[in-house]
Amino acid sequence: MSKSRPWLNLAAALAGVALIAPATAGEPAGAEAPASAGWAAPDLNKLPDDAWGGEVRRGRELIARTYAHLGPEAADPARRYAGNNLACQNCHLGAGTQPFGDPLVGSFANYPNYRVRSGAVGTIEERINGCMVRSLNGRALPLDSPEMVAMVAYLKFLATGRPMGEPLPGQGAGRMPELTRPADPERGRAVYAATCAACHGADGQGQRNGAAGDAKGYAVPPLWGADSFNDGAGMDRLTDAANFIRNNMPLGTTWQHPMVAPGDAWDVAAFMQSQPRPHMAGLERDFPDRLEKPLDAPYGPYADGFSEEQHRLGPFAPIRAEIEKLQRERAAAR
Q1: Which residue, among 87, 254, 265, 97, has the nearest Cα to 171 in the 3D structure?
Q2: How far is Cα 120 from Cα 34, in angstroms, rounded to an integer?
Q3: Is it true that the peptide bond before 112 is cis, omega within 30 degrees of 0?
Q4: What is the distance in angstroms between the CA of the first residue and the CA of the last residue of the chain?
Q5: How does pLDDT run across 270-307, given as a tens digit for each residue?
Q6: 10-25+172-273 sits in which CATH class?
Q7: Are 60 and 43 in contact (CB under 8 A)?
Q8: Least C-beta-crowded within 10 Å: which of 76, 105, 234, 269?
Q9: What is the separation of C-alpha 169 from the centre of its chain, rounded to a whole number of angstroms?
């Protein structure tokens, strides 16, 4: 589950996968292959060496090495907007260019759009700031800041040739079949030890590129603890994390040839999310229309009567059925 050293301990990871106990009842019989992602990101090297090309390259640098420019160890204290030493590309692999690695390709063409988390129409700048305060556990960038302008320029470049609002195959982290049982954090602990700890460490704290304080970030990012994403981040939702692991981890994995079995991916994601991480205040204000709230949102309030534990671990089918019933009832009452 590392993000910077493609083949670090990959042999050990592959060997470890075989050590995990066989699938139990309630696991998906097989993984559903994601839709084909037949695209390539635009080539940055083809941009001219002019003001626009420089701005786009600066935006990519900010996505790839966020910690150096905006992190808590950045040289200029006034630019320390991120609260941890992660980079945007720790979640958006390859600076946002990898299919099913939460790519940023084409995202610019989807904004403004309606955001269920806020219950309002949001801009691309607001979406970037959502990552700043959640995944980077920091504070929002000023909308007219040089960093915001550069990142938006990079996202616009990545949308070159993409039709407005048209879904792009390979977006997100993929979608494999859900479990019909709750995800099991204790089983996930064994998966983690065999498959993930070689890179991320037994304590989940990753591997720094240098020493604390040098603004060099991580070769392998921490998965929990004070320098990880907070509990309002999308990666703290089971579905996002499990699919990301399935299609991208260990690093070097591709969605065409996943290495972690579906049940193992669900369980190790549950283990990761059971570990301590920073808390984001005000999460109860997310998703003001409770019937639009994601089934796996790990914090309430909820509209459906199911427990926080079931929302966190599943199974999700009973929740989905209840939400659909409530939505039909609301529509009929209008």
Answers
A1: 97
A2: 29
A3: yes
A4: 47
A5: 999 999 999 999 999 999 999 999 999 999 999 999 99
A6: mainly alpha
A7: no
A8: 76
A9: 17
**Which CA distances in Å does 158 have to 70, 108, 152, 155, 179?**
22, 8, 10, 5, 34
* Same fold for the pair 10-25+172-273 and 44-158: yes
243 burial level (CB within 10 Å; 0-12, 13-18, 19+): buried
**If you search the block for the tokens 């998966």, which residue do you land on?**
191
State the alpha helices, DSSP H only, in 196-289.
197-200, 238-248, 262-273
| Segment 90-105, tens digit of pLDDT | 999 999 999 999 999 9
- For 57-62, what is the mean pLDDT? 98
- Beta carbons within 10 angstroms of residue 185's beta carbon: 19
Residues constituting the chain: 334
Domain 44-158 carries which CATH code? 1.10.760.10
Look up the pTM and report it.
0.90
Domain ranges of the chain: 10-25+172-273, 44-158, 285-333
